[in-house]
Design goal:
- The complex is a heterodimer.
- By secondary structure, chain A is an alpha/beta fold.
- Chain A is built from 9 helices and 9 strands.
- In chain A, strand 8 and strand 9 form a beta hairpin.
- Chain A starts with a helix and ends in a 10-residue tail after the last helix.
- Chain B is mostly helical.
- Chain B is flat and about 75 Å long.
- The two termini of chain B are 47 Å apart.
- Classes of the chains: A alpha/beta, B mainly alpha.
Chain lengths: 269, 275
């Protein structure tokens, strides 16, 4: 084992993913490389079609890469999945509509064979619902909850097996701005409390700057890395930080990178 | 000025008004169907009496009620075999459909091989299936049960396959991230997901099973609602014919309501919009 194995959460090397349809082959990702340290918070930012959701699904062992190497916590994505080291939050909360909020959070403890036990010392489903601010809603069915509350439940569900990496696929994309702001603040708090690693997909510049420690900017057609930007903002952040000069500068910088001409398909800066 | 008037109403009074309005609407919803039925019977009576329709063509509502009361033991005696056939056929047909749908969902190649045959059998009209099954199964209850089962089978199979397959793709991805087994995906996700689809098929099947049993009894049967219909028709006993029909459809309605009640107990969550 190299020392890197204990500090690196995700390591992607020259990752390429191609999909074959009846008419043609689509290159969703081409030569993507990046690393994410344990305990880090990295956002994948890019326009639609840049393969950011695909990248997340490769890490989650939902899609197999066509070429390249992915290491998750030093092993394969499949090992990480089987060890319950991964939590996934989907864009639509993907709650089971016949289960109450609490029963939805408990689902990971009921399936998956050997991995179903609650890890020792890990917060219980009830505690996690409290953590995401849903105390008193345990018995509600998903259709009785608002969109923001449903997404809170799905975050609690992803945290129930105490995953070392949380993968989030535009979790707040379908929410209104006010709810989204509040959940952004809470996600920062949860990340610090749970000391987990987060890989977060978004197409919002503000969200990526506010939430992350690093932003990986992707370009589309084919999906590829444009630039990795470090977000040098204080660890403790509230929404007011968005009006400060460093924040505005970082956001403007990301916007420039996103908008910069991509005529040169090999442009990797 | 109306705005000023509205603002005079306190919240308690506004709520009271709302409740009164709700109660009025609820009463209206219940009374209107009854008014429709009463109106229909009055219209029927007016036609029969006004046009002097002879009793062997169509009976008056009063004559049907009288026959119902006088012949109640006979009608009930004949309802029993029909009910047994319809309910047995309902259970067998739907159970077979649920099992086959489960197999189809897990073995796509079997679905591709056998689904066309199922469609083909379904295209044969019930009145044509009945004689075939009487020849095959004799003259007892078996062919009637078989017809009722066959008639229930197809809608349930189609709906059940769709219900088991139309799970939220992100929920499927979730199950994979959780390393769920095929059995866990089936029992935790697919089966629950299929319940609204299943019940919409079962509600159709509840009435068609009774139709199947009755049609089965038309062919060489001496007991049952179907046999009674044929006898009444040949005897030009229109009042008896109508009374038999009333008994048969009342049973269908009760069966349907029973299934609806079970649905309300089992599917408490709001199902996604069914297409």
């Amino acid at each position: 084992m190299t020392p890197a194995d204990t500090t690196t959460a995700i390591d992607c090397r020259d990752l390429t993913v191609r999909f074959h349809t009846e008419r043609r082959a689509i290159t969703a990702l081409e030569g993507v490389s990046f690393t994410l340290q344990r305990g880090g918070f990295l956002s994948l930012l890019g326009p639609s079609g840049c393969g950011k959701s695909t990248l997340l699904r490769v890490v989650a062992d939902l899609i197999a890469p066509s070429q390249g190497l992915v290491k998750v916590l030093g092993g394969t994505p499949e090992q990480a999945r089987r060890e319950r080291a991964l939590g996934f939050v989907f864009q639509d909360a993907a709650l089971l509509p016949w289960r109450t909020a609490l029963q939805n959070v408990e689902l990971p403890l009921e399936v998956g064979g050997a991995s179903r036990r609650l890890p020792k010392g890990a917060p219980t489903p009830r505690e996690l619902l409290n953590l995401v601010g849903l105390e008193g809603w345990e018995g509600s069915l998903p259709h009785e909850l608002s969109g923001g509350m449903r997404q809170r439940v799905s975050i609690a569900r992803a945290l129930v097996s105490a995953p070392r990496i949380l993968l989030m696929d535009e979790p707040f994309g379908a929410l209104d701005e006010i709810t989204r702001d509040r959940l952004n603040e809470e996600l920062r708090r949860i990340w610090q409390e749970m000391r987990t690693t987060i890989l977060f997909v978004t197409h919002s510049v503000y969200e990526s700057v506010f939430l992350s420690e690093q932003v990986l900017v992707l370009a589309a057609n084919p999906g590829r890395v444009k630039k990795l930007v470090s977000i040098d903002l204080p660890r403790e952040r509230d929404l007011d930080i968005r009006d400060t000069e460093p924040f505005v500068r970082l956001a403007a910088n990301l916007r420039t990178i996103l908008g910069s001409s991509s005529h040169d398909r090999r442009d990797r800066q | 000025m109306t705005a000023a008037i509205v603002s005079d109403v306190g919240p308690a009074e506004a709520e009271a008004r709302f409740r009164v309005e709700q109660a009025r609407l609820r009463l209206k919803r219940r009374l209107l169907p009854i008014a429709g039925i009463v109106g229909f019977i009055l219209f029927w009576a007016a036609l029969v009496y006004g046009l002097h329709v002879p009793p062997f063509v169509a009976p008056s509502p009063a004559a049907v009620v009288e026959t119902l009361v006088v012949n109640l033991p006979k009608l009930m005696e004949n309802l029993l075999p029909t009910a047994i056939e319809a309910v047995s056929g309902f259970l067998i047909g739907n159970l077979a459909a649920i099992v086959l749908a489960t197999v189809f969902v897990h073995q796509k190649s079997l679905q591709e091989a056998f689904f066309p045959i199922v469609v083909l059998i379904n295209t044969i009209p019930v009145v044509a299936k009945a004689p075939i099954l009487v020849l095959l199964l004799g003259n007892g209850m078996e062919p009637k049960i078989a017809i009722a089962a066959l008639i229930c089978f197809f809608p349930t199979l189609v709906n059940m396959v769709r219900g088991l397959e139309s799970v939220n793709p992100q929920a499927m991805e979730l199950m994979r991230v959780l390393s769920a087994s095929k059995a866990e995906v089936f029992f935790k996700l697919r089966l629950q997901n299929s319940l609204p689809y299943l019940f919409s098929a079962l509600k159709i099947a509840a009435s068609t099973a009774v139709i199947g049993a009755i049609v089965g009894e038309w062919i060489g049967s001496v007991t049952g609602i179907g046999a009674l219909i044929i006898q009444a028709m040949y005897a030009f006993d229109s009042a008896m014919l109508y009374a038999t029909v009333v008994v048969g459809s009342t049973f269908s309605v009760c069966f349907f309501l029973l299934i609806s009640m079970i649905e309300r107990l089992m599917v408490r969550w709001q199902p996604p919009v069914l297409h």
